[in-house]
Amino acid sequence: MTEVARITGLYRYPVKGLSPEPLHAAELKAGECIAWDRAFAIENGKHDFDPANPQHFPKIKFLMLMRDERLAHLRTRFDDTTATLTISEGAGEVARGNLMTSEGRAAIETFISSYMKSELRGTPRIVYAPGFSHSDAPFKLVSIINLATVREVEKLIGKPVDPLRFRANVYIDGLEPWEDHHWVGKTIRLGGATLKGFHKIPRCAATNVDPATAARDMEIPKLLQRVYDHVDLGLYAEVSGAGAIRSGDAVALA
């Protein structure tokens, strides 16, 4: 395999729509996403997600940045060992709860009920099913962003574009813009793990929200459609061979 790039950042998103968590490393398992990535979601409206028979729902069922940009004001931290989510706004903690207990979920839901009251269509409910991911895609995948493509978009917009707008798991650098779009069906080596390019990632209006300020200040999907005649940016990949990945690891292509 030929080295073509390097990993520059790793992230997971334990609760769909809430803030990213940077990772120093991650252990990838075949057929799985990064551990705890989109493990939880917050139903906004009808309570029909069944943990005993989990099914994929469109993102509009849940609180999410595409529609609910105020979520970007919140900073969250998830502790794997205690399943505790801590939410902060500004410099202060505003909620904390163990997401595996009804009491802990209720503490978070109570805060969300107040904080997002104007956006809610009903009582918010945190949902979870072991081994299930509330990803936008109905598959267990790892999302990859080519930073050269982000820089190309910056040139078109004429101002910086925070790569975290794209809410990816893995950020890589060293490629040409859009080069990763040619990896669908190809074997990719990330650190010690092997993946297969699955699908280009169609972008939604969540990318229009500044993850630092919560301002809806860009129209990235419209720009992509106008300039490139598509709304894709980034690559979904499926883990085919288990292994550890770390920031700084090589990215190689078969």
Short description:
It is built from 3 helices and 15 strands. By secondary structure, it is mainly beta.
Count of discrete alpha- or pi-helical segments spanning 4 or more residues = 3
Low-confidence stretches: none
* Beta-strand percentage range: 25-35%
**Looking at this structure, what is the CATH superfamily of the largest domain?**
PK beta-barrel domain-like
Secondary structural class: mainly beta
How do the helices and strands follow one another from N- to C-terminus? EEEEEEEHEEHEEEHEEE
CATH class of the largest domain: Mainly Beta
Averaging pLDDT over every residue, what do you get? 97
Rounded radius of gyration (Å): 18 Å
State the end-to-end CA separation.
5 Å
- CATH fold description of the largest domain: M1 Pyruvate Kinase, Domain 3
- Give the second-level CATH assignment, the architecture of the largest domain: Beta Barrel
Largest sheet: 7 strands, mixed, barrel
Q: Portion of residues in helices?
A: 10-25%
Per DSSP E runs of 2 or more residues, the count of β-strands stands at 15
